[in-house]
Structure prediction request, 431 residues.
Amino acid sequence: MIKNIITVFAVLIATCTLPVLANNSGYIELRPKACAVDSNKQCVVEIEVVFFADIHACAYQTKHKLACTENKESTTIYAYEGDTAIRFDLIDSKSQKSIDYTELTLVELAKYKRRQRNPWSLF
Amino acid sequence: MSSRLLLIAALLLNLASPLSLANESDCDLEQYLAENCIEPGEFNISVALGYGVKENPYRYEDDIDLYVLPDISFYYGNWFFDKDTFGYSVSNTASQSVNVTLSLSDDSAYFHDYHLANITPARSESVPDENKPSFGTALDDEYLPEHSEELPQTTYRLTDSFDIERKIAGHIGLEWNRYYQTWSYQLAVSQDITGVHQGHGLTLKLNKFWHWDELKVNTNLALKYKSEDWVNYYYGVDDNDTFDPNWHYEAEAGVNIVADLVLVYGLNDALSLLSTFRYEKLDDEISNSPLVDKNHLTQWFSGFIYHF
Prediction:
């Protein structure tokens, strides 16, 4: 039964995401993808920027080139200290068009409360 | 047993006493990224549409089809409503919380369509109505109680007074939740305050969550103790149900073992995929009841979540 549930879930994910993946020739991700700000609303973090392209492409933070790759997953570390969200782009070196982008979200955790129940848990 | 319950409650309150309601957030980045955090003062409303089945332990009740699952929560100050629980946080810090709660007995959900635990169900037609026992109906062997081997193996007739309706009980509870990174555990005691079964319960639950980009996984393992009064009310059979002593059954306290798995995959800000699976091993005191024809229960649901 549980195997069937996971299979159905995997098929649903594949159905919903494969058309999107098929159109992309690369991706860029951040780890972590959010930064908790301190009491001065400052974010201080070292981010792992993970990116891949099946063509020659480079990762950018705004207009600053970070690193390049071609047909393999690469990782670069980016240190950030600031109070605004920042954007990372994966740019096709030849056409200079954006293949993918992502944003480091700043979170003011003081605004939030932890839920006392697990979302969607059945008990 | 009641004195032991009071002792546990006192222990939980004692754990809470040195803790203050800190100004710092109780939500950390891991919890936030796993979508376990909420903005106080704002309603969090999500609805999952799909299909699932909740197995019914009672042999005379059909399984419950699930088409819609809501996830509604509202937090304000130390008060909260989350899923099926009203609560007040006596203490709430990054590492632990102590809550006083009000909730309904999950056992009664099997008798009541519009119980909070099974929103918008429809009765499954897995058992044709003509095969179900009713007043004065001759029964097949499958409907005989398990301890009825000594009964004549021809037909068996229920008395006209046979009735297995059970009321919804309301519980007050005291729970202690301890958090450590992506792990948490809960110790909770509860007591019926509606006079329905007058029993009490104790739950020990372990929770672990993971998140990878858009995929969130949440799993629980719990031991749920229910007192004799509680189990006997929902699963015992006495003169109130039938005057035939062959059906009478007196249940004692029992411990169910429950595990669940929740998978959520975010497609965009408004839409996610959801799959849930729950397994509950029933204590022998419950599964041996003539009203029950299962020794474990499963519940599953798959569908799309819409976040309002």
Remarks:
- The longest strand of chain A covers residues 43-53.
- Chain A touches chain B at residues 1-2, 5-6, 8-9, 12-13, 16-17, 29, 32-36, 107, 109-123 (CB under 8 Å).
- The mean pLDDT of chain A is 87.
